[in-house]
Amino acid sequence: MTVLSKILLVSAFLCQATPALAIEPVPMPKIVKPVEPPADNARAPAAFVTIAPYRYDDVLWENDRTAHRLYGHALEAYEPPSGSGMDAWGKNVRWPFMERQLHTGQQHDYHGEGLDFYDVGGTRGMGGLGIWYDNKLWTSRNYVKARILNPGPTEASFEVDYAPWPVDVGRKVWETRRLTLPVGTNFTRMVSTISSDSQAPLVVGIGLEKKPTGQQKGTFTADRATGRFAWWGPTDPEKGTMGTAVMVDPAMITDVKEDGDNYLVLITVTPGKPFVYYAGAAWDKGLDFRTQADWLAYVRAQTPDFKP
After folding, report:
1. Which strands make up the sheet holding 67-70, listed edge to edge?
2. What is the pLDDT of residues 132-163, one digit of tens each?
3. Tens digit of pLDDT for each residue in 161-188?
4. CA distance 41 to 69
5. I need a labelling partner for 130 at 20 to 30 A (CA). Which of 14, 61, 143, 261 fits?
6. What 8-state DSSP symbol labels residue 27?
7. Does 153 sit behind a cis peptide bond, omega within 30 degrees of 0 on the bond before it?
8. What is the CB-side half-sphere exposure of residue 50 using CA atoms within 13 A?
């Protein structure tokens, strides 16, 4: 089966399995510089992942509902504040758009398909992690290696490696993470394996950034019993509102805390043993959600698989 045939098959499946939502139209941001959309035969719903050497090795991955980015080692010299937090973009088209958006040189502006107004900086962004020790989150720098496992179009998957980083002065850890995003969902599934020079258990903090779109924190909703944690941001008058969420195995949760930048879900893991969690995002000017209630209902309706 050709790639085009696969895309058309996915499109037909989604039309039958997920009827269009009766969602109210909203005012969109001003188009700064229109981007020419893809050809008609490339506008079907699709998942996609690529490594962007023209953007310091960013890993870009998206599907028909959401779009994300991880930062590569090359960016560290250009943007020293960058780190291993996960970026989330708003999009209002079903086809991949991130590369066209980046090539404008103005990815933070709206060009008709979406935009990046979620500021990760040195935070955990949408579901990045670190090691919680001595009331502090110890985090890695940008990824050092990336491998695309499946470029799409029905599912995008890849792996990233993070070089050893210190946990205080007595320990080092390093991570390999596999990320998978199929069409039809706002959640990326992640399988993380954190290794260490000690076999003592680790407390991992999975974070949701408090203020990625401005100076206000937004609203954090925690349901420890079901392992669902969601954030809904304040509204930017021009660009709208972002929402994020993580889903974690409730049996692994030891506490829920926060630091200066992030709300944190703490879980206990064994070095070298993989564990699964999910992270997702939404934009209220996209095609699927308009309110915090819509987003929370969607998060609660998910059926995650926490088996590695």
Report:
1. 48-52, 58-62, 67-70, 87-91, 114-115
2. 999 999 999 999 999 999 999 999 999 999 99
3. 999 999 999 999 999 999 999 999 999 9
4. 25
5. 61
6. P
7. yes
8. 13
- Tell me whether residue 129 is exposed, middle or buried, using C-beta atoms within 10 angstroms of its C-beta: 0 to 12, 13 to 18, 19 or more: buried
Q: How far is CA 15 from CA 19, 21, 283, in A?
A: 6, 11, 21
Q: Which of 91, 6, 68 is nearest to 41 (CA)?
A: 6
The SS3 assignment for 42 reads: helix
Both tokens assigned to 16 = 């039958």
Tokens in use for 95?
């086809």
Model-level pTM? 0.92
DSSP string, 145-189: EEEEEE--SSEEEEEEEEEEEEETTTEEEEEEEEEEEETT-SEEE
Spatial CB neighbours of 242, under 8 Å, sequence gap ≥ 6: 88, 90, 117, 118, 212, 213, 233, 281, 282, 283, 284
Residue 12 pLDDT > 70: no
- Distance CA(284)–CA(122), nearest Å, equals 25
| CATH 2.70.98 describes domain 3-300 | yes
Extents of the domains making up the chain: 3-300
Output the pLDDT for position 22. Answer: 60
How far apart CA 25 and CA 2 sit, in angstroms, is 35
Write out pLDDT tens, residues 246-287.
Answer: 999 999 999 999 999 999 999 999 999 999 999 999 999 999
Is 197's pLDDT higher than 60? yes
Instruction: Give the Cα separation of 97 and 102 in Å (integer).
Output: 9
Element (H, E) at 100: helix 98-103
